[in-house]
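Wait, mind explaining this?

_____
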Amino acid sequence: MKIVLFRVSMGLMALQICLSLSKLSRSPTMSLKKLPYLCPKLNPQNTKKETSISLSLCLTKRELHFSFFALILNGLSPNTSTAILHQDLLALERYTDYKEGFTLLRPSSWIKVDKAGATVLFEEANKGINNVGVVVNPVRLTSLQEFGSPEFVVDKLIQAERRKESTKDVEVIGVAERSGQGGLEVYEFEYKVDSTRGGMKRIFTAAFVASKKLYLLNIAHSDKPDSPLDTDTRMNLEDILHSFDVAPTT
């Protein structure tokens, strides 16, 4: 009996791995290089960058630094003490904002809510800790690479997370770079946060610069030890992450 149960368990594990590989292979625009990441030493040429707030409508490079992490410092996730994970696949639908110029997949059952600082925000009903939000800000840069490498950006992002009083611990899972429409450069990050506001959360972030605007996507989902992020939900969240792009021309 033990042998049979062991074989069933191994079979299920193999099936999950196959499903994950199959899901990744369906993203033709993805040139993802997920790597284990240890916070790198800062590039000397970038160490003097400051975080500052400007009253100007167009952001300088230092203001971009502030703008990029305002999403993290202010947080798109409302304070929620508990969240129950579901085991079903989320139904995704295309959401395109032609005025601001971006597109992404969103869970069709999640509710669109208003929140200061967010261009758009979708929350799971009664589980606001699970959400997908986008922030768009004007910048003077023409590409994200002018701000820094993916490693430099994620280091700054993690520093911002650690400065929050609610943060107990943060761990980077992956850093990636891919091409969007027309060769657009897109940075992607995945990390875990243990916070006094909602407990353990998995965060997926994507960013790009287009038409002198900085576009930021932030996906947050509960990932507690007693109810970890399941494979199906994770695959859905990755689909949303990889779908974030500049809006197609009409």
User: Anything to note?
Assistant: The CA atoms of residues 2 and 216 lie 49 Å apart. The chain has a mean pLDDT of 76. The first strand starts at residue 92 and ends at 97. The radius of gyration is 19 Å.
